[in-house]
Amino acid sequence: MSANSRLTIAAHALAWIGLYQRQGHEVATSEQIAASANTNPVVIRRLLGELRGAGLVESRRGVGAGWSLARELGSMTLRDVYEAVEPGPLFAMHRATPDQECAVGFGIQPAMREIYAGVEETLRQELSRVTLEDVLRDVLAVRPGPTGEVPSGG
Amino acid sequence: MSANSRLTIAAHALAWIGLYQRQGHEVATSEQIAASANTNPVVIRRLLGELRGAGLVESRRGVGAGWSLARELGSMTLRDVYEAVEPGPLFAMHRATPDQECAVGFGIQPAMREIYAGVEETLRQELSRVTLEDVLRDVLAVRPGPTGEVPSGG
DNA sequence: GATAGTCGCAACGCTAATTGTTACGACAGC
DNA sequence: GCTGTCGTAACAATTAGCGTTGCGACTATC
């Protein structure tokens, strides 16, 4: 499907900011998050910009600037994140219009569109069952450590 | 997500073959199907080759060759087709390994892998609720016509 | 007011997947 | 043997995703 990593990186960033804030820090920089995700700060800023548009994070500019959560992690779900960073459909139609003189060519797109709409709604419902709080909990459970563990180890 | 049309085209091909066979024809050629889907016969042969590997269709070679269903449309679901033409995962992990010294970087991939596995299983279950018989019925319902209507109008 | 650190954003290159296309060998019915 | 179709390789074109650089905008601090 040529899957991309946008949902993964966005969830990573949110979990990182959330954990960092629990350690008493006000804002996290794109550079810190990028170091944790092993990517470029601009990639993080692009994704967080979309999350900001969805009301999930806020940003400050100037010296001491950075990113902070706009809501509690427990009130955000992967559905919110998915809809913020994946605007397009899951399945595409034909690149070129099928033969409208053919019964199958004529009806296939409306039929598949309706089927796909139901499937995508189910996907969204499933994503909405997982909060970012769940994600952070699962992440920290992989390598058990002290409560309030430092994201980057320092 | 950079969605592709593989599932759509594969469903189109199966519906076309199924309808064509109901009109008394034994096999359908990739050229006929390609004309209906408005694409190249090689594209159809590639997809049908994957469906053949999954046991959904059969092919004959030589003069008068072509494609036929290996099972009834009612016994195939979109899940079968999806698994035949979409081997990869729905969501990708980080392109580069995240910082393993960071608690989030260390735990994010196992955590997301498990979450994604559940989501993808839900997607498959939803796709398994739709048979290709359902698809063909929906397709023909878009433009009501006589039972046994000719796919390409001739 | 100057400085420094960070975001905002445009621009570009690289890589990979998808799709379309051509070409040609393999096969089977006539 | 001829012909029509599949089987498959090879290549081009297009697009999305991702990484990178560069620079202007903004603001806390000095």
UniProtKB/TrEMBL annotation, chains A, B:
Pfam families the UniProt entry points to: Rrf2
Signal sequence range: none
InterPro entries: Tscrpt_reg_Rrf2, WH-like_DNA-bd_sf, WH_DNA-bd_sf
Domain of life assignment: Bacteria
Name used for this protein in its record: Rrf2 family transcriptional regulator
Organism field: Streptomyces albiaxialis
